[in-house]
């Protein structure tokens, strides 16, 4: 006990004031969620995988010195060769290095997923915020419009849009997916806003004279955005898979662009003869989609106190 009190006694003897105790950590939904996420192996493993794929998409030259866009890197004499020291994943039908194409294919696939997620979250989230806050005729109008989009099958609608544009690139694929998928985010945000705007803190802020924009963006949005973040994280993996499916069907990205879905489509006819050009991009695609779904599950569990 004397050892415990010795530092405090010495400070008192020399006239130094005792150190004030550290203030307790401020409790909030986001701080509690982050504290919970750091202890979840599911979050750590998915975040590591996503980090690797993001670095791969931004800096592909860090993973391979071969430029798949250089025609000189493809040799027809090496077509459909197996794994070797020169070609880790083998070669495709044109003698191009499958490993290099798989690395560079991450960029387009992830860009489509990220941009589509951002657009759907912004459009659906903003419209859902306005509809849930305003109610009445505005809510009725927006809800009827979303029901029209829900009646359109997503894949069929995307096929139709891309067939009309006839230009398979990142932005047309993103547009085709975003146009048909924003209503899901709208409904989630609308429901969360309707629940939040009846809370006591919102009623008190309205009674104190807070304006409508301040109520929406200062008081309601921070407390209603959590489910949108969860759904957006899970949907991101779905959008990457959707881009691969559209490219596989021949209406998504097209050569000379590189994406995992396009690689799978090009390799399917010679799969039994050379399975590597199909299996490796399919493996990377599956790991990416799985990582984002796992991340969404971990975020959902952390943000919902009932699931902790």
From TrEMBL:
Residues 106-296 form the ABC transmembrane type-1 domain. It is a multi-pass membrane protein. It comes from the Bacteria. It is found in: Cell membrane. This is Peptide ABC transporter permease. Residues 1-26 are annotated as: Disordered. Gene3D superfamilies: MetI-like. Pfam families: BPD_transp_1, OppC_N. One of its GO terms (cellular component) is plasma membrane. Belongs to the binding-protein-dependent transport system permease family. It comes from Streptosporangium minutum. The chain crosses the membrane at residues 42-63, 110-133, 145-165, 171-189, 224-253, 278-299. Residues 10-19 have a biased composition (Basic residues). GO terms for biological process: transmembrane transport. Keywords: Cell membrane, Membrane, Transmembrane, Transmembrane helix, Transport.
């Amino acid at each position: 006990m004397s050892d415990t009190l010795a530092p405090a006694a010495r400070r008192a003897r020399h006239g130094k004031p005792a150190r004030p105790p550290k203030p307790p950590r401020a409790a909030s939904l986001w701080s509690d969620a982050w504290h919970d996420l750091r202890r979840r192996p599911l979050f750590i493993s998915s975040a590591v995988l996503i980090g690797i794929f993001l670095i791969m998409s931004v800096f592909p030259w860090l993973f391979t010195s071969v430029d798949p866009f250089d025609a000189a890197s493809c040799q027809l004499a090496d077509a459909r060769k197996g794994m070797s020291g020169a070609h880790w994943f083998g070669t495709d039908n044109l003698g191009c290095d499958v490993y290099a194409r798989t690395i560079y294919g991450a960029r387009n696939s992830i860009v489509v997923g990220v941009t589509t997620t951002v657009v759907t979250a912004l459009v659906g989230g903003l419209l859902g915020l306005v509809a849930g806050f305003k109610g009445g005729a505005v809510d009725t109008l927006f809800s009827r419009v979303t029901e029209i989009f829900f009646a359109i099958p997503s894949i069929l609608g995307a096929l139709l849009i891309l067939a009309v544009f006839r230009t398979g690139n990142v932005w047309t694929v993103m547009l085709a997916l975003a146009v048909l998928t924003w209503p899901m985010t709208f409904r989630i945000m609308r429901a969360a806003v309707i629940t939040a705007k009846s809370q006591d803190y919102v009623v008190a802020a309205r009674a104190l004279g807070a304006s409508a924009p301040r109520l929406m963006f200062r008081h309601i949005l921070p407390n209603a955005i959590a489910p949108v973040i969860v759904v957006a994280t899970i949907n991101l993996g779905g959008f990457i898979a959707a881009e691969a499916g559209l490219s596989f069907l021949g209406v998504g990205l097209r050569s000379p662009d590189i994406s995992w879905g396009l690689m799978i489509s090009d390799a399917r006819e010679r799969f039994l003869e050379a399975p590597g050009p199909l299996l490796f991009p399919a493996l990377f695609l599956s790991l990416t989609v799985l990582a984002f779904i796992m991340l969404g599950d971990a975020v959902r569990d952390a943000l919902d106190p009932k699931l902790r």
